Amino acid sequence: MAAPASLLEELLLGTPALVDLTIRDAWVRERLQQAPAPVAAFTLDQLCQQAELASPQARVILLSVVRALLQDDTLAQRLREEAAAGALLSLDRFLRWPTYQPRSSDPHARPLPQSTGRSLTLGERKSLARRPDRRSFDRLLRDPHPDVIRMLLQNPRLTEDDVLRLAAKRPNFPDILVEIARTPRWSVRPRIRIALVLNPATPPEIAVPMVLLLVHHELRLVLELTDANAPVRAAAAELLRRRPPQLDEEPPDDKELLQ
């Protein structure tokens, strides 16, 4: 059964037109929430099939879908059930892992980065993360609390290289990496996305759907690195088998993703 053209065409035409990524994610989430579950599931299954064949347009939409599902557990579970009931194999591969639920230790109990003077309170660290002062960034990027990282990721002075360093850090806390994945400004960047996929601390619930957004040389890199999660490596191997080898293009740059 093919997806009704109306929702599929709406996503294909409407998503790239929304330049603001936060608005884009909210719009995609609203379209999926308002559609009947079977319609939403069939639509996403077709998009997943296109992404498996390296469609850049499908990948752009599915990146918003990944972030949308991180914000709506109910929608994710409903789509997962429809994929299983309707034998929607591409969507099932995309959603084979349950929605991420925090399982790491209490952030309040994690050791803070060493520094001279008294330890700052959580409120003080969150306040620092909002300020346009790069002198404190190195310390804040090592902060173990996801609330501090969430504030820092919104700071306009933060650079892609800063976030890449955080996304690639080992060892790391899963909820810190989830905060990066949830932030449109950064998860849209190919370098940061592959760093999240490759980091063994990234929960498979996040990393496996992102595998579908990778291109050939990135998929091969996943298979070459032995510390990548086993489910992530399995998803990359399966996708490489399904994707025609001639479709080995570069990942879309930021301009293409934002158009």
Explain how this protein is built.
The protein is mainly alpha-helical. It has 2 domains: 5-94, no CATH class; 159-258, no CATH class. Helix content is 64%, strand content 0%. It is built from 17 helices and no strands. It is globular. Mean pLDDT is 88; it is low at 251-259.
Short description:
The chain has about 260 residues and is mainly α. The chain has helices at about 5-15, 20-35, 35-50, 55-70, 75-85, 90-95, 120-130, 135-140, 145-155, 160-170, 175-180, 185, 190-200, 205-210, 215-225, 230-240, 255-259.
List the helices and strands and how they pair.
Layout: H1 5-17, H2 21-34, H3 37-52, H4 56-71, H5 73-85, H6 89-94, H7 122-130, H8 137-140, H9 146-153, H10 160-168, H11 174-182, H12 184-187, H13 190-198, H14 204-211, H15 216-224, H16 230-242, H17 254-258
Helix pairs in contact: 1-2, 1-4, 2-4, 3-4, 3-5, 7-9, 9-11, 10-13, 13-14, 14-16, 15-16
Key features of this structure:
259 residues; mainly alpha; 17 helices; disordered C terminus
Give the uncertain stretches in residue-range form: 251-259
- Biggest β-sheet, characterized? none
Structural class: mainly alpha
Mean pLDDT: 88
